[in-house]
């Protein structure tokens, strides 16, 4: 669940303007596969999104690593820096970089590699390669992650890692092509490990964060099937991506965008090729 469910104010009224200020997420018969955007479908299928553990049929030819969905464009070299206050009041620094690298996922889709690094007081606590691709309709799909947690410089866990098409893991939607109030969708599915869900609550919000003021933002509600007490609200700004996250239940904190910039190609390449646990930011 690395697409900032864990780390990515007050919600006054869901469905109305949100503003936040802060300092610098058995059946013996298999279900029929759903027909979804990106699998050479008709326009009527655009509103149909993956749910729960239902299988999907996706045509790799309908996907691209050139991700330009306006609510989370992922141009190689794009880098977001966040400050997160976790449930215990600790301040963590989160750096997310779109790399120049791609990866062929087990289900045949080629994905863009995104590096997600979390530090606490300068010490690495989590490092991840996330894999995303965009379908022909413009929806962004989440195809898995290679993640590691660290303590005192040593890797202590790779729990939560999964790859769509391996061991029953399924891809999900991280941002629909045409977000509409009330849309619900699976973000990822790996039974017992990663079962995250999203819902579009509003497409007309605003947010204030250290990186600036953003209008026409999308507000989502993110939940985890296997952790029913966890609830987060996220705001995605047009042309930028995630800018603010409220953890309102389950021990999550608050995360704010501090800086959004374009780094040079050498850094973007290092982000994708430097092994997890090693510092690419010094490149």
Structure, described:
The relative contact order is 0.21. Mean pLDDT is 86; it is low at 4-47. The protein is mostly beta strands. It is built from one helix and 15 strands. Strands 2-3-4-5-6-9-10-11-12-13-14-15 form a twelve-stranded antiparallel β-barrel. Strand 12 and strand 13 form a beta hairpin. The protein has one helix at 265-273, and strands at 63-64, 78-85, 91-104, 110-120, 123-135, 140-151, 154-157, 162-163, 170-175, 184-190, 194-209, 212-224, 227-237, 241-249, 254-262. It is 3% helix and 48% strand.
Secondary-structure blueprint of this entry?
Elements: E1 63-64, E2 78-85, E3 91-104, E4 110-120, E5 123-135, E6 140-151, E7 154-157, E8 162-163, E9 170-175, E10 184-190, E11 194-209, E12 212-224, E13 227-237, E14 241-249, E15 254-262, H1 265-273
Antiparallel strand pairs: 1-5, 2-3, 2-15, 3-4, 4-5, 5-6, 6-7, 6-8, 6-9, 9-10, 10-11, 11-12, 12-13, 13-14, 14-15
Number of strands: 15
Overall helicity: under 10%
Helical region count? Answer: 1
Share of residues in strands: over 45%
User: Going across the major beta sheet, what is the strand order?
Assistant: 2-3-4-5-6-9-10-11-12-13-14-15
Quickly give the structural class: mainly beta
Element-by-element helix/strand order: EEEEEEEEEEEEEEEH
CATH class division: Mainly Beta
CATH topology: YmcC-like fold
Quaternary form = single chain
CATH architectural designation: Beta Barrel
Q: Can you tell me the residue ranges where pLDDT is under 50 for at least 5 consecutive residues?
A: 4-47
Rg is 18 Å
